[in-house]
Amino acid sequence: MMILTTETAPGYEIQELIGYVKGSTIQSKHVGRDITAALKGLVGGEIGSYNEMMTEARKLAIHRMVEDAESKGANAILAMRMHTSSVMGGAAEIIAYGTAVKVIKTV
């Protein structure tokens, strides 16, 4: 599955516009890591456990978006974007979305 943040795919022609596809997840870390993150927040620096959580969440949201596109017969996703929002303390929702299309190589 080709995933692009652009509206076109250079060297490819759009054969069919399938439409909106998305994938999302809500992730959280356990209380022990929340306490560690709070302490890290006092002294500054990168909070590794939250960085890891968000990396996992982005991968899962993209995976689910690709599954949505494949189930609709697409072979590419254009104009892909990601959005995140806090759901509650220590939990975040990640949404990956874009436009599913069928493309063919032209060059």
Task: Outline the secondary-structure elements.
Layout: E1 2-3, E2 12-28, H1 31-43, H2 48-71, E3 76-88, E4 91-105
What this model shows, in words?
The protein has 107 residues and is an alpha+beta fold. Helices cover 35% and strands 44% of the residues. The protein is built from two helices and four strands; from the N terminus they run ββααββ. The protein has a four-stranded mixed beta sheet with strand order 1-3-4-2. The chain is elongated and about 55 Å long. The model has no long low-confidence stretch (mean pLDDT 87).
Number of helices: 2
Stretches where pLDDT is under 50 for at least 5 consecutive residues are none
Query: Which percent band covers the strand fraction?
Result: 35-45%
> Judging from the principal axes of the Cα atoms, what is the shape?
elongated
Q: Averaged pLDDT, please? A: 87
Distance between the termini: 18 Å
- What is the number of strand segments? 4
The major β-sheet equals: 4 strands, mixed
Helix content: 25-40%
Order of helices and strands: EEHHEE
Radius of gyration: 18 Å
Broad structural category: alpha+beta
Biggest β-sheet: strands ordered side by side in the sheet: 1-3-4-2
Which descriptors apply to this entry?
35% helix, 44% strand, elongated, 107 residues, alpha+beta, four-stranded mixed sheet
Compact description:
The protein has 107 residues and is an alpha+beta fold. Helices cover 35% and strands 44% of the residues.
